[in-house]
From TrEMBL:
Belongs to the TRAFAC class YlqF/YawG GTPase family. RsgA subfamily. Its cofactor is Zn(2+). It is an enzyme of class 3 (hydrolase). Residues 63-223 form the CP-type G domain. Residues 72-221 form the EngC GTPase domain. It is found in: Cytoplasm. It comes from the Bacteria. Binds 1 zinc ion per subunit. Its EC number is 3.6.1.-. One of several proteins that assist in the late maturation steps of the functional core of the 30S ribosomal subunit. Helps release RbfA from mature subunits. May play a role in the assembly of ribosomal proteins into the subunit. Circularly permuted GTPase that catalyzes slow GTP hydrolysis, GTPase activity is stimulated by the 30S ribosomal subunit. The keyword Hydrolase applies. Monomer. Associates with 30S ribosomal subunit, binds 16S rRNA. This is Small ribosomal subunit biogenesis GTPase RsgA.
């Protein structure tokens, strides 16, 4: 029996990395009865007589997991959003940020395609960079032919399991190819009529890149807040966390409550109003969510 990490799941097989080798495994027979599904990123105990015929015996406890994409034990989310084609969308970016914050995963924001911008648009992106850095996030303005930005991204990957997130067409696979050309991950051109790309990635797989493991995934197909409760949402905005201890009421939702430190910080320009407006939009979405039985 050995311990390894699942680096790919495809057609009922799980590919487990252990001691420099990848073992093709099936799940134990009672997994299905117990409704246990191994995920990419799982640390597992397995038994294999050779690299083609192995069985996963048990799965160690996960520190986090996503359903869509199906992956576990993620340290960092590299959220790629393009400056153009598709157009930069701060509401969508904030939605991604809340989803990864809710899993206690560290986000790294990469704004791609900077080389395609006018001077005025570059200034706009630099302003967004400052806005998100003030909120507490690392932000990298990147072009795929700009090696300093690629090198900076690589430095964040070492020793971590990172998932790539972002809408279709922002250049996730192109970014991975720029970081490590050996990958040769398929990419598609943007559909001009739709203003977005088609997913080129068909399954979740962990690649060894820059001393870490990076998942190129089929995308976050579910961007709703189905698992998030109202009182958890403020914890997903780090700039709120910095001041909410000053609110008069414990459990303040920073909406209609009086003497709210977050609302005061917004009025004083210490918290970006755009981020606060998105927070209120998400709060309303959770409030109006239909109950699940």
């Amino acid at each position: 029996m050995a311990v390894g990490k699942i680096v790919k799941a495809l057609s009922g097989f799980y590919y487990v990395f252990h001691d420099g080798e990848v073992y093709q495994c099936r799940g134990r027979g009672n997994f299905r009865k117990k409704k246990i599904t191994p995920l990419v990123g799982d640390v597992v105990e397995f038994k294999a007589d050779n690299t083609e015929e192995g069985y996963i015996l048990s799965i160690q406890n996960r520190k986090n997991e996503f359903v869509r994409p199906p992956i576990a034990n993620v340290d960092q989310a590299l959220i790629v959003t393009s400056a153009i084609q598709p157009q930069f969308n701060s509401l969508l970016l904030d939605r991604f940020l809340v989803l990864v914050e809710a899993k206690r995963i560290e986000p790294l924001i990469v704004i791609s395609k900077m080389d395609q911008l006018t001077d005025a648009a570059i200034r706009d992106m630099q302003a967004y960079k400052e806005l998100y850095e003030k909120a507490g996030y690392p932000v990298i303005l990147s072009s795929f032919n700009d090696m300093p930005s690629i090198d900076l991204i690589q430095s964040h990957l070492t020793g971590r399991t990172t998932v790539i997130a972002g809408q279709s067409g922002v250049g996730k696979s192109s970014l991975l190819n720029a970081i490590d050309p050996r990958l040769s991950i398929d990419t598609n051109e943007i559909s001009e009529s739709l203003g977005r790309g088609k997913h080129t990635t068909r399954h979740v797989e962990l690649y060894e890149i820059s001393g870490g493991l990076v998942a190129d995934t089929p995308g976050f197909s579910s961007l709703d807040f189905g698992e998030l409760e109202m009182d958890e949402l403020p914890e997903c905005f780090p700039e709120f966390v910095q001041v909410q201890h000053l609110c008069k009421f414990r459990g303040c939702l920073h909406h209609k409550e009086p003497h709210c430190a977050v609302k005061k910080a917004v009025e004083q320009g210490e918290i970006a109003r755009r981020r606060y407006d998105h927070y209120l939009q998400f709060l309303e979405e959770i409030q109006n969510r239909k109950p699940r039985y």
